Amino acid sequence: MFIRTFAWLLAAAVTFATLGPPGLRPHSDLGQDGEHALAFVMVGLAFGLAYPRRRLLIAAAAVVLIGVLELMQFWAPGRHTRLVDFLVDAGTACLGFALAAAADWLLWRLRTSSATIEGPAE
User: Could you tell me the pTM of the whole model?
Assistant: First the structure.
């Protein structure tokens, strides 16, 4: 439950940072593309961990919603929409989903190898 709440709060924060006043957007030394990449890889990772059984569907929905979010910037004062922003955001969100899948696979492998080493319970 915690990871789902975290994922949705993170999505809300990223939405605010994307559509809110530019002066209220957090800035770092990563530059605009780096900030986008970090934010959306975290969103993808959080949603990928929160919804493991629907990961592919959620990833597809995320790409569509990232496109909608980018297009909404047409109507946000002081904002601009750019194809490169969409590509960075969608690509790094997908990377986050892939990292979540890799983490699940790794945990599964560790559990199954541990069970094999210990042997069946008597």
Answer: 0.85
- DSSP state string for the chain: -HHHHHHHHHHHHHHHHHHS-GGGS---TTHHHHHHHHHHHHHHHHHHHH-GGGHHHHHHHHHHHHHHHHHHGGGSTT----HHHHHHHHHHHHHHHHHHHHHHHHHHHHHHHHHHHH----
Half-sphere exposure of 105 (CA within 13 A, CB side): 6
- List of the chain residues with pLDDT < 50: none
User: How much is the pLDDT for 89?
Assistant: 95
CA–CA distance, 48 with 99 (Å, rounded to integer): 8
Look at the block and give the residue holding tokens 């890799």.
102
Structure tokens at 4: 């789902």
In order of 11, 58, 119, 121, the CA distances from 44 in angstroms are 9, 9, 36, 38
- Judge contact between 18 and 66, C-beta under 8 A: no
